[in-house]
Amino acid sequence: MGVVALNRTWGRLLGAFLLGVAAAVPTCSVAAAEAGGGAQRGFINPGQQVTIATLGSRPMSVPGDTPPQVIVNRMIAHWKGRLAQVLSDKPDLIALPEACDRPSGVSQEKVLEYYRVRGDQILDFFAGVAKENNCYIVYSAKRGLADGTWRNSSVLLDRKGAVVATYDKNYPTIGEIDSGIMPGADICIAECDFGRVGFAICFDLNFDELRLRYARAKPDIVVFSSVYHGGLMQAYWAYSCRSHFVGAVASLPSEIYNPLGKVVGSSTNYFDYTVATVNLDCRLAHLDYNWGRLRSLKEKYGRGVTISDPGHLGSVLISSNTSGVSAEEMVREFEIELLDDYFERATDHRNKHVKRK
Fold first, then answer.
1. Is residue 4 in a domain?
2. Model confidence over 38-84: pLDDT tens digits?
3. Which of 97, 161, 262, 341 is least surrounded by Cβ atoms within 10 Å, i.e. has the fewest?
4. What is the pLDDT of residue 48?
5. 3 within domain boundaries
């Protein structure tokens, strides 16, 4: 199955791994997540804004002979300082880069020793931050399993600091696999109180199979933790999945995209973070056959609706700015044909008229 049930908590996996004890690993659940488009977007409150913070901090460097526990202590202090930059904005969701607690300047052997000592200490630190600040945090790190294998994972902590979802990188690089990282097989959609969140890590961004699985699952947000930027692929994933896309990329621009593939927030050469407030109550529609309907929609709701046109694409983003009527309700009221429905209709029409050889 592509998505499996989430109903357990993430135990102290690394400690269990060292003790050789089987540990339960939470995964993800979502209604009809891979049922060929049957899933519905989970946004409940029309017009509600969601504040997202993403950090692209470079890996913390330490001398090669630094004791493992000292590295743990310094890593916690490092992330305490980086997080302080965004917490005053009271974000609903904070995204961190891939392997965010892996130190640089240390040999592979020393890094493994550090991971054994680290255990859940840094996980517990982030859980405390999430609980204290009433926010979700995506913590991306190397994760040991009870069977002795390793995963490159993104873990979602909820507003109470509990682990509610774990995504294992589906496409580790050849080098990662050869070094012991096992690939995951499932996508992950987590149900949050503001919407549905999916995950991808670094090299994942290159593989259409994974992107299309997420597109069918209809997340509201995709969180991309990475040390690789991906260039145009970030915008393409946002548009293809019809979702907001949050990139947390170590040492490189960390950007937030809307479903049109447009950047709505970005870190800079001066600041390694960005915070943006986005409206998840939105729908994509093509301009074809919708021109008059869109004008009527705007005439009725005025500032209560935003119709965003990026130009050149032929598609617009309809966002509800009122708590009384959702974007979905607006679309239905004016019989506006959504983007995927239009493309499906165009494909069916084409197939009826194609001449087979």
1. no
2. 455 544 455 579 999 999 999 999 999 999 999 999 999 999 999 99
3. 341
4. 75
5. no
Among candidate residues 105, 179, 182, the one with its CA nearest the CA of residue 149: 182
Domain that includes residue 193, residue range: 13-279
Give the residue-averaged pLDDT of 144-149: 90
Alpha-carbon span 141 to 336, nearest angstrom: 43
Residues 209 and 309 reside in one and the same domain: no
Instruction: Tell me if 8 is assigned to some domain.
Output: no
Arithmetic mean of pLDDT over the chain: 90
Whole-model pTM: value is 0.90
- Picking from 229, 261, 279, the residue at the C-terminal end of a domain is 279
Residue in 153, 47, 173, 181 with CA at minimum distance from that of residue 96? 153
Q: In this predicted structure, what is the pLDDT of residue 41?
A: 54
Select from 279, 314, 344 the last residue of a domain: 279
In a shared domain, residues 118 and 209? yes
CB 142 within 8 A of CB 150: yes
Average pLDDT over residues 84-110: 97
Q: Residue 31: pLDDT above 60?
A: no
Tens of pLDDT, residues 181-207: 999 999 999 999 999 999 999 999 999
The number of folded domains in the chain is 2
- Check residue 34 and give its pLDDT: 58
Question: Same structural domain for residues 255 and 292?
Answer: no
